[in-house]
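# nightly structure sweep
# worker-07 picked up a monomer target from the shared queue
# config: single-sequence mode, recycle default, output format = structure tokens
# input follows
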Amino acid sequence: MEMKKRINLELRNRAPEEVTELVLDNCLCVNGEIEGLNDTFKELEFLSMANVELSSLARLPSLNKLRKLELSDNIISGGLEVLAEKCPNLTYLNLSGNKIKDLSTVEALQNLKNLKSLDLFNCEITNLEDYRESIFELLQQITYLDGFDQEDNEAPDSEEEDDEDGDEDDEDEEEDEAGPPEGYEEEEEEEEEDEDEDEAGSELGEGEEEVGLSYLMKEEIQDEEDDDDYVGEGEEEEEEEESLRGEKRKRDAEDDGEEEDD
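# output follows
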């Protein structure tokens, strides 16, 4: 697909000034130049034209708000000074897989004062001796070259992803600060109620046990008293019988005495 048709397709019935991102990868340039991209895309912040057989940046429009430019796998060999004029606020530039051979070509990027990340991977310039040291010395404004800084620390994927991760972390912290999830307090209250019921039940059971023991003890005491009463009544009967026997013996003796007197 030609680039001009691809641009019309990417617009999706939007006006060019409403577009902030435009991806034109793998479409074809006419005569190695950009067609269909003009100054009306004034709000554009991200532009990707990877593998479009682009050989010249001469027709690149003025894109003052452009921050990220992907130009990998093309046939660009020079003319990079156009970038400082047309895209002065670039922070990220990917020129990997192009025909850039020497430091003098890259020197034109010195005027991109906001440039932080440059990618020249798979360009012939990377075969130069002390390539990394030379680029960092030549372009002192950049932090990352081919994805790594001077101390070989890897660059973050993108600032936008970092921001999204930060937002997710903030949401997690807010959830932690907000306290336990819904229903958690209700479960605690139910558990406390169950514990109260168990304690009440155990106290009641102990009370019933105490009542039962006291009742049994009272019954035993009463039985002992009844036994004592029974024993007492038996003794009294025996005493009465003995007294009756004694009186009978006395009367018999008296009767015997009277008979002897006769």
